[in-house]
Write a structure and sequence with these properties.
Strand order of the largest sheet: 3-2-1-4
CATH architecture: Roll
Number of domains: 1
Shape: globular
Mean pLDDT: 85
């Protein structure tokens, strides 16, 4: 199916271009400016289990549970299987209602249905950043505990 693509093309670039990935990373950086919270995005082509269960596994693999205030948020997307999930560590999850996570999910879903994947993800990241700021405002001694770069799983190389 992808045999005519250059060997340097990754599966993730078939879903998000380099420019779109840069926009997502910028959204993460912007969202984290006013909070001690941490936001990550993880992409992989396939998810053979429930997306939330896989997101929990990725959350652990990325060591997001090790943030000092337990205030990490992960946006997980399995783009080929059209699955996604949002998960927050106990610090933020215990402070927001389930309706917040459901609103985020619906916001993303509505954009994804319209094939506005980058926009939906960036808007959801911004909203998560606002919620993190509300409960975990930036402190002068804050450090960026986790990378803002998108992480990739599965078979991402063609």
């Amino acid at each position: 199916m992808y045999s005519n693509l250059p060997k340097q093309t990754s599966m993730s670039e078939l879903f998000f271009s380099k420019e779109q990935q840069d926009k997502i990373v910028s959204a993460i950086q912007e969202a984290e400016l006013n909070t001690s919270g941490e936001i990550r995005v993880h992409l992989e082509p396939n998810c053979t289990i429930d997306a939330l269960e896989r997101a929990k596994q990725v959350f652990e693999e990325l060591k997001m549970h090790e943030t000092e205030l337990k205030n990490g948020v992960l946006f997980y997307l399995a783009y080929s299987d059209k699955k996604f999930a949002i998960i927050g560590d106990s610090g933020i999850h215990n402070l927001v209602s389930d309706s917040f996570w459901n609103e985020e999910k619906e916001l993303m879903k509505n954009h994804f249905i319209q094939k506005q994947f980058t926009e939906g993800l960036c808007i959801a990241i911004a909203k998560a950043g606002q919620k993190l700021k509300e409960h975990f405002p930036y402190q002068t001694n804050d450090t960026n505990e986790l990378s803002n770069e998108i992480s990739f799983g599965g078979n991402n190389e063609v």
